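pinging the channel bc i need a second pair of eyes. not urgent but kinda urgent?? the chain im working w is below, pasted from the shared doc
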Amino acid sequence: MFASQTLVNIEDRIVSVDEIFRLQDADEYSEAERLYLSASTTSRSAVVLAASRGKGLEAVTTDRPKVMLPIAGKPLLRWLVDSFKKESINDITVVGGYRADSIDPAGIRLVVNERYAQTDELASLACAIEKLESDTVISYGDLLFRSYVLRDLVENKADFSVVVDSSPTDASNRTVRDFAYCSRGDDRGLFGTQVLLKRVVSRADTRPEGTADGEPQGRWIGMLNVSRQGLVKLKTVLAALRARPDFDALDMPALLNALIADGAAIEVLYVHGHWRGVNDLEDFRRAVDFAHGQTPFGSTPDATPTEGNT
């Protein structure tokens, strides 16, 4: 039992200075944070896509978007923002939409996709991407994950890199999306071997059958890391997609596939669980359990890996 309490299992249960200030609700916190960030030499940014109310979550999102749902004592968005800041990602843009007025603006730059009800994820991304010039993480807003997941992603030196969960998917779970086809499966024996993303399929009902691709190697969890150089290509590809008549209906997998078609090499970092996405009420319940396992004053974390949207 003691052998299972590795750094991966306990690192998220160590209280950060940032969290201590937040729990104390210190009046000077915002000013201290501003001064600290202005002195920081780290140049990293993040864009969080948080415009949706959340299909399947209407019962709990009457007065707030999905990203403001309470998870173990703080909003889902705050878990994500705190994770970014832990990795010195301090320039954080959140793209709101539904009930954007209820999003806590502390420590972020809030922009609003006024057409959120008529558009999908790429239209929200387009609201924020043009002003970015540094290494950037683009993320869904409904994610919880162990610290190492983001740390390994931002430390990757590729122009484009993504996190793919190789754990099995429950076929009965209709909320699972973003199936990833990769150049290799998740094989620990090939540690250090480059794995590239071939394409992402948004939904289970669009997965090809009887093709050479066979079964996907996992699921993209919803985080894309882009270097400063890669950001130039991403903006160019996004501009081309914006010229399409169906742009309003395009999601993040459409962008990944367009980048690949344009010659971008997107490196894959495999995980096996250790994250959660919130897509319905059952996911919401599991996310609360997952978060309690990450909090310093919560219950003892599970010794076994926590899967994604299974």
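so Confidence is low (pLDDT under 50) at residues 1-5, 37-41, 297-310. and DSSP finds nine helices and 13 strands in the chain. — does that match what u expected or am i reading it wrong
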